[in-house]
Each structure stands twice: as structure tokens, then as C-alpha cells.
Amino acid sequence: MLGNNIKELRKAKRMTQKELADTLHVSQQTVGSWETKRAIPGADTLAQLADYFGVTTDYLLGRSEKKSSSEEQETKDLKKFLEDNLDNGMTFGDGKVTQEDREKLEIALTQIFYRYHDEFKKRKEEKGRFKF
């Protein structure tokens, strides 16, 4: 299961084994051995793989069908928050928010969320999270 999941995720990103190996600072042969089930990545490398592919370690190990990482879950949570709050009659001042204002609020809040989300991911990568 683990090897198949690594291979599936790598191919979904249109990466070669060498590109994934370079990203994780391991050899291409190491990636190949994971994918053919001849070797298993250590706990730290497993966490790096999950972070890189945006999935849970449980998904990689075949313990869960849920691919979502916590960041993807936050995106889903934001969407639910917006739907719950904006669809249930949000009000400002004396009156309800119009449909046009509601749409503008949703767009603005979503853009802010993704801007901060992208900045967080960049900072995380810049800190060399995938370096040994």
C-alpha cells in the first residue's frame, strides 16, 4: 500500500523518481525501492513525504482513505464557516447583508485566507523543511 501510494502521488504531480529523490535528498534508487516495496521510509521521511504531497501519514500507510492534510482540512473548514455564517443571515448595523455584499465578503475572506495559506507554505519550504 505505501509503495503504491507514493508512486500514485508522485505521478499525480508528474514527477520522476529522480525529482522526488532530489526533493527529499535521497537517491533515485531509494525512491524506487519504496515504490516496489523493497524498503520502507523512516518516520521522518514518511512525515516529509506526507507534507510534500499534502496528505496524511495514515493515508500514505494505507490506514485511511482520507488524503487530506490539516492544511486541506483548514480550507474545507473555511468553506464551511463561510457557508454557515453567510448563508444564515449575517447582519451588519441595522440590516441583513445583501446577496451582492455576501458574495463580496465571501470572495474577500477567501482571498485573504489563501494569501496567508500560500505565504505559510512558502515560509515552510524556505526553512528547508525537506533538507536533512
TrEMBL record:
Keywords: DNA-binding
PROSITE patterns xref list: HTH_CROC1
Recorded GO MF terms: DNA binding
CDD domains per record: HTH_XRE (cd00093)
Domain of life: Bacteria
Protein name, as recorded: Helix-turn-helix transcriptional regulator
Organism whose genome encodes this protein: Ligilactobacillus murinus
Organismal lineage: Bacteria, Bacillati, Bacillota, Bacilli, Lactobacillales
